[in-house]
Amino acid sequence: MTYSPREFYDDLAADYHRIFRDWDASMSHQAAVLDGLLTRALGPGPHRILDCACGIGTQAIGLARTGHRVVGTDLSPRAATRAAAEAGARGAALPTVAADMRQLPFQPGAFDAVVCADNALPHLLTGHDVATALSGMRRVLRDAGLLLLSVRDYDEDRRTRPAATPPQVSYGSDGRTVTFQLWHWHDDGERYDMEHFQLLPDAGEWEVRVRRTTYWALTRAELTDAVARAGFSSLTWHEPSVSGFYQPLLTARAG
Questions:
Q1: Orientation angle between helical segments 77-89 and 5-12, nearest 10 degrees
Q2: H or E element that contains 192
Q3: CATH numbers and ranges of domains, the chain
């Protein structure tokens, strides 16, 4: 069974933090990288930021704690609800709403920056849907506002077509969790079905949870072209070895 993206993230929402060895440390680190890019592009904040694929708040909570005025949206109501609760537990304000990134419920020019991280955009499987989402992000940005978009290194993945990701181990009060993925490439060589495995401790045994979804392995050239067509300029890729972020990051200015 392959879930829709909403079903996938609704089911994962309660366990998402287990992907990280230390979720709070990841929040702080990622926020520091993103805040640095925001400051260099837009000047000192606070800025009005939309995280349009906020999940359980990995980027949004850290940015809110940095002092920015952040709003989070996510296709998954369970993830968006958890993001707001986790922010509150850490003393941060993070209003959230369940919304599709292709239909963002905000007025034109409402934000100084839009974040779309964690490989969220490649859940959209057609050029039309990608263009619709990016045009919506442009619409809710003020002129010269900043887009920050992160994806996997699909240039390399399209070349090597990996079958799996290395296992990751996280530690919680209930013990260790092991997370890994199996990838099943489509004949077009561009899209793949992903099986997301988590092995959770269960009274000395392992509970196995498997969730499935599909991605479009968009290359840098494909994304650069789509972002430019959506009305963005000054497109710049920031490699992990330079930025310190865990995925390649694309920044672009509205207009």
A1: 40
A2: strand 191-202
A3: 5-152+218-254 (3.40.50.150), 156-215 (2.20.25)
Question: pTM for the full model?
Answer: 0.95
Compute the C-alpha angle 120/66/22, nearest 5°.
60
**Range from 3-12, 108-117, 145-154 carrying the lowest mean pLDDT:** 3-12
Which residue matches tokens 């850490």? 90
Query: pLDDT by residue (tens digit) across 195-248?
Result: 999 999 987 889 999 999 999 999 999 999 999 999 999 999 999 999 999 999
Helices 77-89 and 58-66 cross at an angle (nearest 10°) of 30
Q: How wide is the angle at C-alpha 59 spanned by C-alphas 238 and 93, nearest 5°?
A: 145
Question: Over the stretch 31-53, which tens digit does the pLDDT of each residue have?
Answer: 999 999 999 999 998 999 999 99
Helices 58-66 and 23-42 pack at an angle, to 10 degrees, of 60
Burial environment of residue 254 by CB neighbours within 10 A (0 to 12, 13 to 18, 19 or more): buried
Coil vs helix vs strand at 199: strand
- CA–CA distance, 64 with 100 (Å, rounded to integer): 21
Contact status, residue 24 vs residue 175, Cβ threshold 8 Å: no
Task: Calculate helix-pair angle for 220-229, 127-140, nearest 10 degrees.
Answer: 50
**115/60 Cα distance (integer angstroms):** 9
CB 64 within 8 A of CB 90: no
Q: Give whole-number Cα distances, 137 to 97, 140, 182, in Å.
A: 16, 5, 31
Q: Check if the beta carbon of residue 216 is closer than 8 Å to that of residue 124.
A: yes
